[in-house]
Amino acid sequence: MIPTRVYLDTCVLGELVSKPGSSKRKAVENIIKLACEGQIKVFTSKYVKDEIEESPENIRNTLLRLLSELPHKAVVENEEILYLAKRYSKEIGLTRLDAFHVAVAVANALDVFLSFNRRTIINKKVAKKLKRFNESMGYKTPMLLTPDEFSEKVNKEKGHRRKK
Q1: 37 CB-contact burial (10 Å; exposed 0-12 / middle 13-18 / buried 19+)
Q2: CA 90, 94, 95, 99: dihedral to nearest 10 degrees?
Q3: Which domain holds residue 50?
Q4: In total, how many domains does the chain have?
Q5: CATH of the domain at 153
Q6: What is the 3 state secondary structure string of the chain?
Q7: CB neighbour list of residue 101: distance below 8 Å, 6 or more residues apart
Q8: pTM of whole model > 0.85?
């Protein structure tokens, strides 16, 4: 079954202003298409918008327009997110902003966290620490994937369904 509740890290949206035709951009465009078709539900947060606001004007305007056109839910910050983010920074070593993004996904029990940030989020070491910490706190850890990996997973699932 295709994971349906997906959090987009800011860098994912940023690929929409990258070189047309790049594999990363194609993966993001595929995710946007799935959202527009209602096959997945996309979630973002105030942290995504805050990061976009810090971009150069031409990029900021484009990304804000794309975000406004994207069917998504912007999750509102709450005490649980703030608490988790603080603990992720301290216990796992995530940067403050990365910790907030991940905390939003975890606190809202999302299925997937998408990012291109392999150095600090999408890697086995962080995933293992995050899973261990979340389990100790009674939380489910979303799958940490790049958009390319998610698109591949979705395509495999669609192919599997056609064979049935």
Answers
A1: exposed
A2: -90
A3: 5-163
A4: 1
A5: 3.40.50.1010
A6: CCCCEEEECHHHHHHHHCCCCCHHHHHHHHHHHHHHCCCCEEEEEHHHHHHHHCCCHHHHHHHHHHHHHCCEEEECCCHHHHHHHHHHHHHHCCCHHHHHHHHHHHHCCCCEEECCCCCCCCCHHHHHHHHHHHHHHCCCCCEEECHHHHHHHHHHHHHHHHHC
A7: 7, 9, 10, 45, 47, 48, 113, 115, 121
A8: yes
Q: What is the pLDDT along the chain (164 residues), one digit of tens a residue?
A: 566 899 999 999 999 998 888 899 999 999 999 999 999 999 999 999 999 999 999 999 999 999 999 999 999 999 999 999 999 999 999 999 999 999 999 999 999 999 999 888 899 999 999 999 999 999 999 999 999 999 888 888 776 555 55
All residues at 6 or more sequence positions from 74 whose CB lies less than 8 Å from its CB, including other chains: 43, 44, 45, 46, 48, 49
Q: Angle, nearest 10°, between helix axes 57-69 and 46-53?
A: 150
Q: For residue 47, which of 83, 18, 7 has the smallest C-alpha distance? A: 7
